[in-house]
Design brief:
The chain folds into 2 domains: about 5-200 and about 315-420, Zn peptidases (Aminopeptidase, 3-Layer(aba) Sandwich), CATH 3.40.630; about 200-315, Alpha-Beta Plaits (2-Layer Sandwich). It contains 12 helices and 22 strands. It has helices at about 5-15, 20-30, 40-50, 105-120, 145-155, 165-170, 225-240, 280-300, 320-330, 350-360, 385-415, 420-430, and strands spanning about 55-60, 65-70, 75-85, 85-90, 100, 130-140, 180, 185, 195, 200, 200-210, 250, 255-260, 270-280, 305-310, 340, 345, 360, 365, 370, 380, 435-440. The chain binds zinc ion. Zinc ion (ZN) binds near residues 104 and 106.
Length: about 450
């Protein structure tokens, strides 16, 4: 059977199941769950995969599931994934428990992932291909509820706060050669898809300024004002901004999460959180050094102590050009050339970035939604564009890669230059989890 015939078979199967996919996606949308709590969404996704005759392994990292079409010895294994979690957006009209809402469109990703499974498995296409596909529903992409996740880490239930980091650490990507997933995005006219964007990586930080209490009215001279240390630190960080290089796309956006205890006591315990984002690992590290310097200088000025905890965030997204071109060719069966943009930079972050540093991957941004992600305006308006077309394009791209004994996949894997090996990546994560305490000593 030729390649085009296989692609037609895959697309026909997806069209035949369009209603099932719509029902599934709507069901997930109406029942949002937050990261590492996506038990119901995992069950629904597993049930859908089982109906296709696949064997499913559930709760791979607290939640999440995976199903493989049958590993073929020595042949490429491609992962198509979708994310299970929602984000907190209390003001979203369809927000559920704890303000959870699918305003990042992860329900759409799951629809696209399952659609591609229908296209490749239900149609019988996979039997004609020289490799296997792993469909994976991954937990906890949104880097939120840090305290909840810190507790999971302290209890030994997970090692890392991000779902994909945790899955790599657990070895679930050891046998994966290429990874693919999408995010939804509202694009300006006439764009319907943006491929090959970079994204920012980030380092997460929790900062605690520790001073000394004293009566604010009676004896402020006996206190050490931790809030003053923090406000100085914020100004110090702002003074660094002109030194950030445009091409590094640095973003530092601290917030004060605790400003003091009561108004008539000099604040002695002030807490701050921030990300340091950047589009290159080097740029990120460089900016992080300056932020740490700023925090220490704030503490130094008033003689306070500062505790800086670093949490490994996500790495920058580095999409594989060969895969992007292939995906684009397939998208052109459904949308026009002028509706697709190649390249660009996204200042947000995704843990899919981590995977693209260690294996070839793509992360197209597909339309069919309105409103900015993570806001109350985010809403799906065109299911066909949002996940039916991506499902087809993913299935067709897999066919291209695994046709003819997987020759194209093999050459892309061979050509790919990882920025670090998987072991180096895991070491990087270990090294990035640090707590540093700085106290200025009076001379
Ligand atoms: Zn997302």
């Amino acid at each position: 059977m030729d390649k085009q015939q296989l692609k037609t078979m895959a697309c026909e199967a997806i069209d035949k199941h369009a209603q099932n996919l719509h029902d599934f996606t709507l069901d997930v949308y109406k029942n949002p769950e937050l990261g590492f709590k996506e038990f119901e969404t995992t069950k629904k996704t597993s049930a859908f995969l089982r109906k296709l005759g696949l064997e499913v392994e559930e709760n791979i990292a607290i939640t999440g599931c995976r199903a493989n079409t049958g590993k073929k010895e020595g042949q490429p294994n491609i992962c198509v994934m979708g994310e299970l979690d929602s984000v907190v957006c209390v003001d979203h009209p369809d927000a559920g428990k704890d303000g959870a809402s699918h305003s990042c469109g992860h329900h759409i990703q799951l629809g696209a992932m399952l659609g591609s499974a229908v296209g490749l498995v239900e149609s019988g296409v996979i039997e004609h291909l020289g490799g296997s596909v792993e469909f994976m529903a991954v937990p906890a992409e949104e880097f939120i509820e840090i305290d909840f996740r810190s507790k999971l880490i302290a209890d030994g239930k997970i090692k890392y706060a991000g779902g994909k980091q945790e899955l790599v650490a657990r070895g679930f990507f050891d046998h994966i050669d290429i990874s693919m997933m999408m995010h939804s995005s509202s694009h300006e006219e006439p764009l319907k898809a943006v491929l090959g964007t970079t994204s920012n990586g980030f380092i997460g930080k929790k900062v605690n300024f520790i001073g000394r209490e004293a009566h604010s009215g009676g004896a402020p001279h006996l206190g050490i004002n931790a809030l003053n240390a923090a406000t100085l630190a914020l100004n110090n960080i702002n003074a660094q901004r002109e030194t950030f290089k445009d091409e590094d796309h640095i973003r530092v956006h601290p917030i004060i999460t605790k400003g003091g205890d009561i108004v008539n006591v000099v604040p002695a315990d002030v807490k701050m959180e921030t990300y340091v984002r950047g589009s290159t690992i080097e740029g990120m590290k460089e900016a992080n050094k300056k932020v740490n310097r700023s925090l220490k200088a704030g503490a130094m000025a008033v003689g306070a102590r500062v505790e800086i905890q670093e949490i490994p965030g996500y790495l920058p997204l580095k999409s594989d050009n060969n895969l992007d071109e292939l995906f684009k060719e397939n998208l052109l069966s459904f949308i026009k050339e002028e509706e697709i943009r190649m390249g660009g930079a996204m200042a947000g972050s995704t843990d899919f970035g981590d995977l693209t540093q260690i294996m070839p991957g793509i992360h197209p941004m597909i339309g069919g939604v309105i409103g900015a992600a993570h806001t109350r305006e985010f809403s799906m308006v065109d299911p066909n564009l949002a996940y039916i077309i991506p499902a087809k394009a993913f299935a067709m791209t897999v066919i291209d890669l695994l046709y003819d004994d997987g020759s194209l996949a093999k050459s892309i894997i061979k050509e790919f230059k990882p920025s670090m090996t998987r072991d180096e990546y895991l070491k990087f994560l270990e090294d990035s989890s640090t707590i540093n305490v700085y106290q200025f000593e009076e001379e």
